[in-house]
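Internal tracking record. Fields below are filled automatically when a chain is submitted to the structure queue. Please do not edit lines marked as system-generated. If the sequence contains nonstandard residues, flag them in the REMARKS field before resubmitting.
Queue: standard
Priority: normal
Entity type: single polypeptide chain
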Amino acid sequence: MSRAGSHVDEIRRQFTRQAGAYSQMRQTRDEKALKLLVALTGASRSDRVVDVACGPGFLTMAFAEGCTHAVGVDATDELLRLAREEAKRRGLDNATFVQGDAGQLDFEDRSFDVASCRAAFHHFPDPAGVLLEIRQLVKPGGRILIADMLASPDPEKAAYHDRIERLCDPTHTRALKEAEFDGLFREVGLEVLHRPTSEIDYDVEEWLEHGGPTEEVAAEIRQLLEASIANDLCGLKVRREGAHMKFSHQVAAFLLLVPSA
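SYSTEM-GENERATED OUTPUT FOLLOWS
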């Protein structure tokens, strides 16, 4: 089995086990943030949208509320089941969810006006290959939204960050630096139209629930985060707020243009 195939299987196992916890995270279902991402793309009522690595489908559904048809694609059947149930509850007949691998997307080329991929690029062993797959789905003149955490430009902080992420969720491959994203976009011929950046704050205990590490591993993660408070060893601004330990992901939302020629 290829490394990519093995990693997809690992993702399925992890997110099947943790689907419920992940789908209930505040950051996963933040309606205000989702609406801002949809607005950034300029998606209109006439557009067809594909949301790659859609997870429990909240971004897909946010698109469906204002477009002709939104398709969510994910490798994990349990996440898709939750997405379908929620779309049915909301009465969104124009949101559909299909099982698929982000590295081998089974759609006709140039069949969508807008594509999105949120909080997933840090899971991909071959991010350039996934980006090329997404690009091929979008019509000339269409838009692509890539939103994800950013790694610190400091290599030591980035490595420390990735160590923590992998302990919590073994399917984390690595967070990309902003400059690395820019390199990927140039490599596949995409123009960056906008790149708003922000921070997403996490309570450590809530974040640990989404990954579901053993208590022994969770204790190791807490120790690594605690050690980072004084000197920000991981670039995550770890701090104490009362009885809670918290940290922040630096995130970016890249709006990309597929050239017309």
